[in-house]
């Protein structure tokens, strides 16, 4: 399955649409679930366009797979997103433990170093 291509849109419009859809959806989710730090959800087409433009993914997937995103909220308002290919029937609502396990299994190891660095920086700057 291939996400809808948006070659006619400039990067600035893609970024605006990602903010209006994906980032807004994540913000609302974590506001409504203050105990959560992880989330798995279907990817938005515009989000896939953004990931593809930045070389993070190839758009085309085998027929049985579609794009999902695992989100890690490091701190309120600070989140990292990682695209992953998974079956269409992957549940759209998963527990915190399942989402955390997906993050741990699928995200590159260097991201954990980045997260530690971010947390360290936040601890020294923001109380």
Helical content, roughly? 40-55%
Q: Mean of the pLDDT scores?
A: 88
List low-confidence stretches: none
**What structural category arises from helix and sheet content?**
alpha+beta
- SSE arrangement, N to C: HEHEEHH
- Output the strand order for the largest sheet: 1-2-3
Distance between the termini: 45 Å
> What's the gyration radius in Å?
15 Å
Described by the principal axes of the CA atoms, the overall outline is globular
Number of helices: 4
What characterizes the major β-sheet?
3 strands, antiparallel
Number of strands: 3
β-strand percent reads 15-25%
Whole-number tally of structural domains: 1
Characterise the protein shown here:
By secondary structure, the protein is an alpha+beta fold. The protein has one domain. Helix content is 46%, strand content 20%. The chain is built from four helices and three strands; from the N terminus they run H-E-H-E-E-H-H. It has helices at residues 11-32, 45-53, 96-106, 109-125; strands at 38-42, 65-75, 78-87. Strands 1-2-3 form a three-stranded antiparallel β-sheet, sandwiched between helices. Strand 2 (65-75) and strand 3 (78-87) form a beta hairpin. The longest helix is centred in the N-terminal third of the chain and has 22 residues, at 11-32. The chain is globular and about 40 Å long. The relative contact order is 0.16. The model has no long low-confidence stretch (mean pLDDT 88).
């Amino acid at each position: 399955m291939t996400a809808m291509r948006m070659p006619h849109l400039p990067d600035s419009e893609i970024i605006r649409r990602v903010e209006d859809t994906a980032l807004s959806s994540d913000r609302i989710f974590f506001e409504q679930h203050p105990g959560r730090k992880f989330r798995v959800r279907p990817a938005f087409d515009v989000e896939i366009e953004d990931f593809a433009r930045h070389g993070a993914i190839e758009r085309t997937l085998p027929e049985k797979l579609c794009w999902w995103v695992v989100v890690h909220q490091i701190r309120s308002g600070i989140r990292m997103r990682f695209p992953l290919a998974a079956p269409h029937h992957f549940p759209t609502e998963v527990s915190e433990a399942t989402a955390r396990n997906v993050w741990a299994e699928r995200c590159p190891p260097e991201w954990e170093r980045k997260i530690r660095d971010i947390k360290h920086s936040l601890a020294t700057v923001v109380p």
